[in-house]
Amino acid sequence: MARKKIALIGAGMIGGTLAHLAAMRELGDIVLFDIAEGIPQGKALDISQCGPVEGFDAKLAGSNDYADIAGADVIIVTAGVARKPGMSRDDLLGINLKVMKTVGEGIKQHAPDAFVICITNPLDAMVWALREFSGLPHNKVVGMAGVLDSARFATFLAQEFGVSVRDVNAFVLGGHGDTMVPVTSYTTISGIPVDDLVKMGRSSKERIDEIVKRTRGGGGEIVALLKTGSAYYAPATSAIAMAEAYLGDQKRILPCAVYVDGKYGLDGLYVGVPTVIGANGVEEVIEIALDDEAKQNFQVSVDAVKELLEACKQIDGSLA
Ligand code: A3D
Question: Do 252 and 277 meet the contact criterion of CB atoms below 8 Å apart?
Answer without folding.
Answer: yes
